[in-house]
Amino acid sequence: MKNLIVIGAGPAGMSAAATAARGGAKVLLLDEQPHPGGQIFRNITRNRNTLPHLGPDYAKGLEQAEALQHPNLTCRFGSTVWRIDDGRAKDGPRVAYSQNGKSQSVAARHVLIATGAQERPTPFPGWTLPGVMPAGAAQILMKSSDLIPREAILAGTGPLLYLIAAQMIDAGTPPLALVETQTSSMMARALSKMPRAMIDRQQVFKGLSLLRKIQKAGVRRYTAAQEFRARPQGDGLTFTFTSKGKEHVLHCALLLCHQGIVPSTNLTRSAGIPHQWNVTQLCWQPTHDDDGRTDRPGLWVAGDGAGIFGADAACAQGVITANAILCALDDLSPDIARHINAHALNRRFRADALRPFLDAAYAPAPEFLSPVDETILCRCEEITAGQVRVAASNGAEGPRQMKTATRAGMGPCQGRMCDLSVTTTLAAHSGRHPTDLGPHRARSPCKPVTLGELSRLDLGD
Q1: Where is this region: Disordered (predicted)?
Q2: Predicted structure pTM score
């Protein structure tokens, strides 16, 4: 039996696994992708320095990935975790995962869930059309296949849009336009957070340099954009929106949308970990203490899957949580971990300083939290916002009743892509707060698995 199972090989998972292994723990690292890195450092071991347009921050992930080469650490990539049982069983938490068409279950004294973040859904009329995709998905293609977006418009809000725009400029295919939903009043309110943000002034200056690059490249920028709508036109798209009261019509081959990121919580919810509503980031996140400990025996969380603070904070949190787990394994006082974590705590504090400014300046636009009736919310079952509102008016007052009434969240993605949109739409329609509704319940298996795999489940060690 392993001392620790780490789920997710992004910044938090990699730093936690390497730290725990160096501390003497026997560690198993599981990740769906064929290589370590998560979304931020995807394919870093294969790309190394061959994709210069992705920038120096991307190259930082190589050191973390190479640190996984440790005799105490076993890495199993291409592994999809579909169930976690908490530590109330006598042999500790058990993790069931699928790899190469075979499922097995393994136990450990502790399990760290570091599944990272996913993009917030950006539902508007036409967002399901071919050629409309999340901006983060386009960046994944850049990292995994060196496919550079061409004739693309970046639409939405958040620093990721600036980063992708700069990467496209460096690759020689600048975006046709940058259509941003943040308003001048949002930016004005965010200025009160700037003094704290300057604790991490390097990131602030980095953001300003991205904006200068975009301006120098002559990319058109529209702000205070509303009323997104996409329609097919020939081999491309027509994208209409209003900006400062004026309607605009643009043509493009690709429309890359983004409204920030939210914790990926299907696995933590299916494990029975309580979740709370983040009133600033408008999303659910697992409840945990400063070390990443949850109220479920043996279950821990770290990184953006526990709350959005960015890659640097995730790396630091991975170290902090790993050292807390090492103390728990040896029945040592948690104060010892805090002493060891002094550098990581300082790094996390510095990285956290920028987040309040970003949350205020780039908050999601209301029209995506409660879109117009014709907008599809659940892509799997093709359920519209209007159908959700009708079901709510007919008595579907919560997520469970909404599933029964509409099947929203019951498709192959099991709500990963729609439950947040359904929650915010239902809350706005009923005049209630999301905490009154509660998070959608995620059930095991939380990822698709065949009956054949279940029947041949290997209980392992």
Answers
A1: 429-449
A2: 0.94
